[in-house]
Fold Putative spermidine/putrescine transport system ATP-binding protein.
Amino acid sequence: MTAPLSIHLQACAKTFADGTRVLEPLDVQIKAGETLVLLGPSGCGKTTTLRLIAGLEQPDAGGKVLFDGVDVTQQSIEARNVGMVFQSYALFPNMSVAENIGYGLRIRKLPAAAQRERVAEMLEMMRIAPLADRSIDQLSGGQRQRVALARALAVRPRALLLDEPLTALDAQLRDTLRVEINQLLRRLAITTIYVTHDQAEAMALGDRIIVMSHGRVAQMGTPHEIYHQPANRYVAGFIGTMNRVQGEYRDGGLFTCPAGRLRWPGAQASGAGELLFRPEDVSIVGEDEPADLVGTVTASLYLGDRTRLIVDLGQAQPLTMDCLARSAPAVGQSVRLQVDPQGLLALAA
Ligand code: ATP
């Protein structure tokens, strides 16, 4: 493989012919060799961003796409040499697996021996060598996605663009392929842009994640930053589970609510507000220990390795937390809770 590519989107807005503005001017630097995940709900502009990078769509006037600093905005998808994989495999049904993988090589008129060698290498890499002569309709969904990846990588693309490649697969296969794709991308160190609406997939695969909302970047950061330092309530609510407690900030670092009080280390003007924290920052404490909050268990979901508890605090949104299955309190029981002050967040809407 050649040296990985850096991609720069400069003021890339997109307005479609019908006047719909689906991307606000977007400025993103994608580092050479990294996997950048575009995450967000349906319709937020992820696929449009990917298509701008591929050259399948043009940005509005003034927007630029740079590959290693070179302006490629006017270049075709072929000239940009990027590999694409979609949710709907888009394989050629009338060709065998090997013919599908070799398609781009034939188009590029690679010598026959080099084509055979490259196809064999891809079959091996994706662990589908025994399927080489099968036709596409004889393959499972997971096998088809392996062929699609092999076809995209066979031409040695400068970047790999993946649009929800695992969405059509069942949960178990998705988990397996997610691990395989992760290992493959690390090994190849190819610059990858990966579109998904699945936050677990984003966390597992991304070196960095862009959380998108209505054509805008809500936050860009590492999975760790996005999870632990969400920039706003939208991001906090989109990734993982987040508890919200409404109450009042008081002097002296206290936040009070009907269910108790939290020690709040941050500076905040007195007045009504909301604190947020993750389920893993909550623990049950005994009668003789100081409690921050007191509530009543309203649901207890046995998950095998742990039990998820839903606790009523007399607020609009109940609290979610996990505890060891063997020490789980019963539904209806009152629980005394401590919240790790390190996990408390006060966020803008
Ligand atoms: P999904 O996960 O559903 O594919 P997405 O985040 O990838 O969503 P996009 O496919 O980028 O979102 O679409 C963003 C918005 O642009 C949507 O509201 C969509 O209907 C609109 N859109 C996409 N293509 C066109 C087009 N050619 N003309 C007009 N509007 C379009």
The CA atoms of residues 288 and 336 lie 10 Å apart. The mean pLDDT is 92. The first strand starts at residue 7 and ends at 15. The chain has two domains: 7-238, 243-340.
